[in-house]
Amino acid sequence: MTNLEPEGFVWPDPAAFYVDVVKVPDPETVKYRVHLDLATTSAAHQAELVARLKELGATPADVGQGDVPWTVLADPEGNVFCVLEPREIYRDTGPIAAVVVDCADPRAMARFWGEAIDWTLHEVTDDHATLRSAKGVGPYLEFLRTTPGAKTVSTRVHLDLLPNPVDDQAAEVARLQTLGATPADVGQGDVSWMVLADPEGNQFCVLGRA
């Protein structure tokens, strides 16, 4: 596993966003439900970022997006992500604008995740929902209405939740289950974290003390 985090990161800090890259045996063979959107500050910045990412090994990806102002790329293992055109809403998110989840019911997902992580609901329609930390910092969590079909594979991008204090893992798991989460088995074995699935089957983890 490789951990990427901001310099000077001190938990809990809602403005901090860090990524764990975990080795798994299965390559990406389908379009997964969860992806990252990267923020840019100008058209020039978007073009420069796309060029730099291609130099690092990213490749153009076609997920049926058509003629849109953002650029869809795939990392060297095929994980799709987007480099957005400048948008005012993402001016202060840092490099990651949003974690985006394809779903069947954005309203239901916003209700679950809003209560699960106590984030503020900024927008909700039948087609789209947007949440962000109550402190108004860091990336957004967004839900887009699609027709994803039955979920048959594990999610390659997922959220890890860390209870505060971390020793309250069992209580947090119980609380999330009352909201509609269910236990999930992704072959994790005997580990310090608990794997759950949200009401649409997207896996996430509740971390504990290692």
UniProtKB/TrEMBL annotation:
<dbReference type="Pfam" id="PF18029">
    <property type="entry name" value="Glyoxalase_6"/>
</dbReference>
<dbReference type="InterPro" id="IPR041581">
    <property type="entry name" value="Glyoxalase_6"/>
</dbReference>
<protein>
    <submittedName>
        <fullName>Putative enzyme related to lactoylglutathione lyase</fullName>
    </submittedName>
</protein>
<dbReference type="InterPro" id="IPR037523">
    <property type="entry name" value="VOC_core"/>
</dbReference>
<dbReference type="GO" id="GO:0016829">
    <property type="term" value="F:lyase activity"/>
</dbReference>
<feature type="domain" description="VOC">
    <location>
        <begin position="95"/>
        <end position="209"/>
    </location>
</feature>
<dbReference type="InterPro" id="IPR029068">
    <property type="entry name" value="Glyas_Bleomycin-R_OHBP_Dase"/>
</dbReference>
<keyword id="KW-0456">Lyase</keyword>
